[in-house]
Amino acid sequence: MTKTTRIDACFQKLKTEGRGALVTFITAGDPCYDVSLEVLMGMPEAGADVIELGMPFSDPMADGPAIQLASERALEGGQNMIKTLEMVRQFRKQHKETPLVLMGYYNPIFHYGPERFVKDAAEAGVDGLIVVDVPPEADDELCLPAMEVGLNFIRLATPTTDDKRLPMVLQNTSGFLYYVSVTGITGSAAPDISRVHENIARIKRQTELPLVVGFGVKSADQVREIVKGADGAVVGSAIVREIEANLDENGKALPGLVDKVKSLVSSLAEGVN
Amino acid sequence: MTTANSLMNGPDERGHFGSFGGRFVAETLMPLILELEQAYETAKKDPSFQSELDYLLTYYAGRPSVLYFAERMTEHLGGAKIYFKRDELNHTGSHKINNCLGQILLAKRMGKTRIIAETGAGQHGVAVATVAARFNLPCTVFMGATDVERQKPNVFRMKLLGADIRPVTAGRGTLKDAMNEALRDWVTNVDDTFYIIGTAAGPHPYPELVRDFQSVIGREVKEQMMEAEGRLPDSLVACIGGGSNAIGLFHPFLDDPDVNIYGVEAAGRGLDTPDHAASLNGGEPGVLHGNRTYLLQDDDGQIVEGHSISAGLDYPGIGPEHSWLKDIGRVNYVSATDKEALDAFQLCSQLEGIIPALEPSHALAYVKKLAPTLDKDHLLVMNLCGRGDKDVFAVAEHLGVEI
Asked: If 0-12 CB within 10 Å is exposed, 13-18 middle and 19+ buried, where does residue B389 land?
């Protein structure tokens, strides 16, 4: 891929500023379309450098309870792929620079039609895709069509991705590489920072791509520690839990939800400033 | 011996049966399933692996299971000559033990020290807990909370065998949710854990290895029918949830074009209602639990829960080889409703003195329709893949009887 994407530009800019990226995750449509859009719209100002927007799925096998429940809330609220892409369009009208990555599982994309999906996503203003259950062995399914329309296909490397396998994972990855800090699911226990740094150093010997670390990252202090070696840190479950904590018994947003989430993101951003 | 145009050659090296199957898992699990594939390839070529498995199948599981001429059922239906493959006579009461013995031997070869599994009706869970006890490995079984409630006898059995039961409350608390949770456990405990999948689904190589371990059913039927009648059967009938008992019966016959093959899905309250579990007859291709296959799903690609009176059939997917066999037309996939299965359950108990599980009661429900349309010299084999002891409470409730 020769074209510079918003993701490439973002990491170049951060490099000149000498700081790491705060990558934030929310599930599209959680707890409902309007509130979720408002949260999304407030993210850049609150300090998110890159945004991951989850495409809700009924069977999120790689996710812990926090994101499972977020997916359930979104689907109950009527979220679907068409609405998720509409949310990106709304976001992109106002935010021209902040990179947005769609993250999720393959079946809703397969059902939508992979070729049609990558085209519609690119047109809506999506910059990259993270699809958990499409490994490099199945690049022809989605990765190659995504590259063709200029989307970054961002892969996960994990503690089980050894040096022998790493080149295969890196081969068609662009934008950044997402290092999964632990063997496990999202929202798990905090990673062992020294082991994470060892693995970052190991991976950086094989690639010049920006390297972002996620899974189990909850606090500004953890973010600060991670970006000492990595180019960014992802916070997901902690933000989603803040949404969950500000719902009434019927699952409707309580007044102040959006501000509370934004203030959490601002405090996390202190870890990269 | 397989030939170039055999239907028995699948899957290819990427785990595909036609466009189905494959390996759709998170990166953390990729190295593990590649390692499993390697280990299985090596084991297949090692005569000591097969001989140990054969020994256990004979002396522990009680194989071969008999091929029984169901004389009164044949008379009653007044058509085809009906044989039951009595896999319900196996140790643990179903065909599930065939696969569990194979997989635990693989686990042992790979040096794994902890076993996990998912279960729906609990038949697979019981078989896993059994082999884990026999091989002295700790075992955790994930079971949907709804299934824990409706399959109490099996839950207690697993506990007696020393298994740790984890009720899963996510989703509707059935088999698919249990499988999600087992995958979450596996991704967390990658070093020591072996995941014994119970049906011929999941990422490659599971559909292949489960099929291979279950194919002992069809191989025995071939021999036993030659002995009994001097020729191959004309029809095979088996129920389908994920499809492991069915593929085990069907696979050795795929290259025998004169053998008609029927897979019976659970139609629940009817295929024209949302309450069924017929992935092939009422679903569309999609990707779930590591493979591409027919799935029950909505317009947005969200997975829909299946419904069946039988907890062993209400999985919203199906093994990928069945999806391929449907598309190429080699197997006829039909269905039976809850009510038809309940009727067959009672008929079999009364006519043959065999209480079948609700799962093969679906196969029998179809045999009830098919057999009368066939000649008296037509040889029909139905896989009676499980016994009904576990279902007596549920059936009593459906019949309005208090016990």
From this structure: middle
